[in-house]
């Protein structure tokens, strides 16, 4: 039996236990409750008026952030394929894959309904981008099951923070409430994966530590393939919704501390080397974040003066 498959098999009781925990704390919610349907009106095909830029109540940053968040959520079919392939659809793993997919499906439904009903963004452009992004799909490459566990532990937390901060920056109480609800889902998903990765560290410390190092160093959000993603990411970072400082302080470091990465004494030579490389990488991220903070402060001072 492949070592990674053996770890998945050994983790099965932990998966079952965490499914029970998840279901005991997850709260049922309905996308339609979070959409201000009274603001809606017909588009031209049904005798109304098509979208105009002045229709949107959102500022440019909120438009960008909400569009990126929605299009990222739209690729759920690809994400389902990725985790079903790595974790299988059998036993407790299969139960979780189904539960996770069903819960994640609410996010794009609610976000799109909100944006279309409120005319927050051009629905034609939005649909064309959805088609482009979903046709392209998401492919994680040859990630091992442990690498996927490490990645989603970081990614679910990053997504939670991005949604939550987007809601706060939207200037709309309804959007803020909706994105807070979605962020709560993402947080529970992060806890599930984080717990599984913690158990994997106890089962095979070196293999798990290697996966964690690789995924932390090579981390990229699943929406990276979107048109204009780099430009939009800069806009989002400058607005303080999600930047390098947040990634370091609020995503990487808290998860690594939960796993006790910095103080574990059960690594062999391979795991120890991976930890050292990860610590070095964190120092570089912190240094780069500081550079951008100082640059932002200088720019702000120049504008004030």
Automatic annotation (TrEMBL):
Taxonomic superkingdom: Bacteria
Gene Ontology annotations of biological process type: fatty acid biosynthetic process
Pfam families according to UniProt: FA_desaturase_2
UniProt xrefs under InterPro entries: Fatty_acid_desaturase-2, Ferritin-like_SF, RNR-like
Keywords: Fatty acid biosynthesis, Fatty acid metabolism, Iron, Lipid biosynthesis, Lipid metabolism, Metal-binding, Oxidoreductase
Cofactor: Fe cation; Fe(2+)
Cofactor binding remark: Binds 2 iron ions per subunit.
Iron in keyword set: yes
Gene Ontology CC annotation, any one: cytosol
Residues annotated as binding Fe cation 2: 104, 156, 186, 189
Chain positions recorded as Fe cation 1 binding sites: 73, 104, 107, 186
A single GO molecular function term of this UniProt record: metal ion binding
PANTHER family: ACYL- ACYL-CARRIER-PROTEIN DESATURASE-RELATED, STEAROYL-[ACYL-CARRIER-PROTEIN] 9-DESATURASE 7, CHLOROPLASTIC
Oligomer and partners: Homodimer.
Homology family: Belongs to the fatty acid desaturase type 2 family.
Protein name: Putative acyl-[acyl-carrier protein] desaturase
Originating species: Mycolicibacterium helvum
């Amino acid at each position: 039996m492949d070592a990674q498959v053996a770890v998945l098999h050994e983790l099965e009781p932990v998966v079952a236990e965490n499914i029970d925990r998840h279901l005991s704390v997850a709260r049922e919610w309905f996308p339609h409750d979070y959409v201000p349907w009274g603001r809606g009106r017909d588009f031209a095909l049904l005798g109304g008026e098509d979208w105009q830029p002045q229709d949107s109540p959102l500022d440019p940053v909120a438009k960008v952030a909400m569009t990126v968040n929605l299009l990222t959520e739209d690729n759920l079919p690809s994400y389902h394929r990725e985790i079903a392939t790595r974790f299988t659809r059998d036993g407790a793993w299969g139960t979780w894959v189904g539960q996770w997919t069903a819960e994640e499906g609410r996010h794009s439904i609610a976000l799109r309904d909100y944006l279309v009903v409120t005319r927050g963004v051009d629905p034609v452009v939005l649909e064309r981008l959805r088609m482009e992004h979903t046709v392209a799909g998401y492919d994680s490459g040859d990630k091992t099951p442990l690498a996927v566990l490490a990645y989603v532990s970081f990614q679910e937390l990053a997504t939670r923070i991005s949604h939550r901060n987007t809601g706060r920056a939207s200037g709309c109480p309804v959007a803020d409430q909706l994105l807070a609800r979605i962020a709560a889902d993402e947080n529970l998903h992060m806890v599930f994966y984080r717990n599984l990765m913690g158990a994997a560290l106890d089962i095979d410390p070196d293999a798990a530590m290697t996966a964690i190092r690789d995924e932390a160093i090579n981390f990229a959000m699943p929406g990276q393939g979107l048109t204009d993603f780099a430009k939009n990411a800069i806009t989002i970072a400058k607005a303080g919704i999600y930047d390098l400082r947040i990634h370091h302080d609020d995503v990487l470091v808290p998860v690594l501390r939960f796993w006790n990465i910095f103080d574990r004494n059960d690594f062999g030579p391979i795991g120890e080397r991976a930890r050292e490389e990860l610590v070095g990488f964190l120092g570089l991220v912190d240094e780069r974040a500081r550079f951008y903070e100082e640059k932002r402060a200088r720019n702000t001072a120049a504008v004030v003066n």
